[in-house]
Amino acid sequence: MKVTVVCEHNRAMDSEEGKKAYPEGMENCIAEFLRSAGHEVKTILLDDQGAHGLDDKLLSETEVMFWWGHLYHGAVADDLVEKIADRVQCGMGMVLLHSAHMSKIFRRLLGTSCTLKWREDGELERLWCVYPTHPIAKGLGEYIDIPREEMYGEPFDIPTPDELVYIGWFRGGEVFRGGCVFNRGRGKIFYFNPGHETYPTYKIPEVQKLLNQACAYVAPAEPIVEKMVCPHIPEFSVKD
Ligand code: ZN
Fold first, then answer.
1. Is 144 helix (H, G, I), strand (E, B) or coil?
2. How far does the centroid of ligand 1 lie from the alpha carbon of residue 143, in Å?
């Protein structure tokens, strides 16, 4: 599978805690466990200037896209967001991580504000599986503990997920729909809340297994089409 990992680099990643969590860079940590599952992975840097090198050619080759962003959502060009949204509707899979809940592409695909409740506490998140037979949760047991994570809580302003796989619980008593699948056109989207940049969440073996299974699940089962055309009004396709 051809996977593109779009990952922001921000100042928190250059802090002592950030470097301790991911000395190799978060994008390389994510790319590495995807490569270990046999995928061909390219990483794209997202910063205050936008997503560097995410051009039409790479997009047309990408079968699954991972996206981690936080501070620089606004730097992503609107026409690029439209192209990615089209590609998802044509069949590309997408995995959106942590603070990508406020990314332009997630909000564009879901159509809601995607706002949530938040507290940065570095506390335990217990991620309960509420769909034990789902392929993303295979072999991962009843729950996964993330020792230190940011609290993301409900209400989370998203459409009702097509498949709800995980609900996170926090010590403050908050709960959160933290593992959700959405179908958009021919494409599948998975949103996963853990992964604050100063905690080494993506080094946890269960999380790596879950995300590799998510990659396989959202991967296109059929060839990705070039565009979605409606035979009723063939003069106008969604890309025109
Ligand atoms: Zn965070």
1. strand
2. 21
CB 89 within 8 A of CB 114: no
Q: Count the Cβ atoms, other than its own, within 10 Å of residue 112.
A: 11
Backbone phi and psi for residue 104, each to the nearest 5 degrees, phi listed first:
-60, -40
Q: In whole angstroms, what is the distance from residue 22 CA to residue 202 CA?
A: 9
Q: How many angstroms separate the alpha carbon of residue 197 from the centre of ligand 1?
A: 6
Buried b (16+ CB within 10 A) or exposed e, 131-150: eeebebbeebeeebebebbb
CA pair distance 91, 14, nearest whole angstrom: 36
HSE-up of residue 86 (Cα within 13 Å, Cβ side): 18
What is the whole-number distance in angstroms between the Cα of residue 178 and the centre of ligand 1?
13
pLDDT (mean) for 5-25: 97
Distance (angstroms) between ligand 1 centre and the Cα of 223 equals 34
The answer for residues whose C-beta is within 8 angstroms of residue 121's C-beta and 6 or more apart is: 150, 151, 170, 171, 172
CA of 38 to the centre of ligand 1 (A): 28
Beta-carbon neighbours within 5 Å of ion ligand 1: 99, 150, 196
Q: Residue holding tokens 């390219």?
A: 42
pTM: 0.96
Instruction: For 57-101, write each residue's pLDDT tens digit.
Output: 999 999 999 999 999 999 999 999 999 999 999 999 999 999 999
Q: Could you tell me the distance, in angstroms and rounded to a whole number, from the CA of residue 212 to the centre of ligand 1?
A: 21
Query: How remote is the CA of residue 198 from the centroid of ligand 1, in Å?
Result: 8
